[in-house]
Specification:
Blueprint lengths: L14 E6 L4 E6 L9 E5 L4 H12 L3 E6 L2 H13 L4 E5 L5 H9 L2 H4 L3 E4 L17 H29 L2 E6 L2 H5 L5 H21 L4 E8 L9 H8 L10 H12 L10 E4 L11
Helix pairs in contact: 1-9, 3-5, 5-7
The structure holds NADP nicotinamide-adenine-dinucleotide phosphate.
The site of NADP nicotinamide-adenine-dinucleotide phosphate has 28 residues, from helix 1 and helix 5.
């Protein structure tokens, strides 16, 4: 995927940055006071589609963003893109299925700088290996649960160890509309994402007294690439706004939950799904 980036800065009343994705340009509006100035944020899965949008968004709000991922090349692509915009980013090479890898990655950085925001975005469904449960391999079941649910728990555990003594922090977990409603042939993914919703509520109860909030962003289908008209029309029918969600829609929700504006919100799930989980469609 070729990513072309460009910055336009209008220093009138607001600062406007225009960033071109493979699919289309998008604009980030940053107020006079960036919402996350001086903050440190980690985004696991920061090299992926949603993760990249989240990283750019948090960096545009003034945070120093650690872009997480296993593959250095894709991590550095996002890091360099953000640095190229004059914003702050660092690589965080980490495999969220390994507690040792998480310890090594976090311990290398955060005892010194602290950690203000953790976004757990690493994961995804089995995609081409999706299957009825009876025919699904144990390897795929384990892999999807381990990456999405256990990986989220391990990273949150590590963040809690840093955030509890500092008496502040934001943990934001990326679940899915599939975890809310279920989806045939995606049972392991639905289980992992529903697990994240329960985990977030429990952790919010644990960490509230320490000044740490825990919330979920729950996207419906978001555009990750180009689609033909037929596919686009069928995707539009999956939500009540009859449109296709964009990666920035999820990034905006994460940014809100990371900001001071959300300081009294914890244990919640913010659906970014065009109303997909509200009711029945197509009948
Ligand atoms: N796209 C959607 O429509 C949608 C809808 C609802 C929810 N979501 C959720 O949003 C999140 C991001 O989705 P996406 O569409 O942006 O996926 P994506 O483009 O495939 O990105 C996945 C990211 O996770 C990282 N990752 C995967 N396994 C990992 C591991 N073991 N350790 C560390 N990093 C790992 C990948 O980096 P490496 O491969 O380099 O490790 C990559 O950065 C996922 O949790 C997904 O379930 C997506």
């Amino acid at each position: 995927m070729k990513i072309i980036s460009a910055v336009k800065q209008k220093l009138k009343k607001k600062l406007v940055r225009t960033i071109y994705t493979a699919a289309k340009p998008y604009e980030i509006h940053v107020g006079d006071q960036p919402k996350l100035a001086g903050k440190t944020a980690v985004v696991t899965g920061g090299s992926g589609a949603i993760g990249r949008a989240v990283c750019v968004r948090l960096a545009a709000e003034g945070a120093c963003v650690y872009v997480g991922g296993r593959r250095e090349e894709s991590v550095m692509k996002v890091v360099n893109e953000i640095r190229g915009l004059g914003l702050q980013a660092e690589p965080l090479i980490v495999d969220v299925t390994s507690a040792d890898s998480i310890d090594a990655a976090f311990d290398g950085v955060f005892p010194a700088r602290g950690l203000d925001v953790l976004v757990c975005c690493a994961g995804g469904g089995a995609r081409s290996a999706m299957q009825e449960l009876a025919k699904q391999s144990v390897e795929v079941l384990d892999s999807v649960l381990t990456t999405n649910l256990r990986g989220t728990m391990l990273c949150s555990r590590k963040a809690a160890q840093v955030m509890t003594p500092q008496k502040s922090g934001r943990i934001i977990l990326i679940s899915s509309a599939v975890g809310v409603q279920g989806k045939a042939n995606y049972s392991e993914y639905a289980a992992a994402k529903a697990g994240i919703l329960g985990f977030a509520k429990s952790l919010a109860l644990e960490l509230g007294a320490h000044g740490v909030t825990v919330n979920c962003v729950t996207p419906g289908f978001l555009q990750r690439g180009e689609y033909d008209d037929l596919k686009a029309e069928s995707l539009k029918k999956t939500n009540c706004l009859h449109t296709i969600g964009e990666l920035e829609d999820a990034a905006n929700a994460v940014c809100f939950l990371a900001s001071d504006e959300a300081k009294f919100i914890t244990g919640q799930s913010l659906g970014v799904d065009g109303g997909r989980t509200l009711g029945l469609y197509g009948d």
